[in-house]
Design goal:
Elements lengths: L1 H27 L3 E7 L14 E7 L51 E7 L1 H6 L7 E8 L12 E20 L5 E11 L1 H13 L1 E7 L12 E2 H4 L28 E8 L2 E8 H5 L1
Antiparallel strand pairs: 1-2, 3-6, 4-5, 4-7, 5-6, 5-8, 9-10
Amino acid sequence: MILLTAFAIAAVCSYMVYRIVGNRIASAQPKTTSVVVAASDIKLGTLLQATDLGTVEIGGTIPEGAITNPQEAINRGVISDLYRGEPILESRLAAPGAGGGLASTIPPGMRACAVKVDDVVGVAGFVTPGMRVDVLISGNPPGDANPVNGSKVKTLLQNIKVLSAGTDIQKDGEGKPQQVQVVNLLVTPDQAEQLSLASSQTHIQLVLRNPLDNQIAKPEGTAVGNLYAGENQPPPPKPKAAPAPKAAAPKPQSQTYVIQVYNGSKQSEQKFSSGEGNQ
């Protein structure tokens, strides 16, 4: 009886110690949450499928907007590039039902305007999605009062976001296919009208800028004639001053004539001005 009682007491104490130690160990370990991640590198505009997704366990606080259920990400478009193992956030996906492609990356109220650029800009890879550019136009302004200066360049738009950059197959004047560098810019409807008109009437050049630089400059524009104007060039002649009007010559004062008239024994005097005296 003594041995059985000792074994029973030892078993109860061991179970209590096991529970207490187990609870402390469990509370000391951080809780993990299953988060949906990209199973491979995913390009902008891709429509997510189940094979593109994976899950990982993240301890502690998960990123804000992280998706925990893979079904919430399937058939949604990607609005920015995703990399393998990166958690998929709501802000990186288009709204449900918006589909994939470039259209899903356009915010409400904005437009994507395609602009043809030269090979130097496209091949060099300077203009890539997410960067900021300024749009410059050059040409001969219609109705220029001083055509001697030649072509002019002006900054049309500033701090414009690039949605995509690549090549497009278009036909030249003879109907032959040719590759053209095309950049899609995120603009407002008013800016889209300006770009559309500038594409057909002027030459467009994109200028890369720092994404953190939000300052809007106010350049005056430059003409070809200004490029050849040196610092020692004589100043332009001053316009001649208009001659001062001549003062009117003073009118001569009229003279008065006195004529004495004798009529018998009577004498009288009559006065006449110069004009009347001549008559």
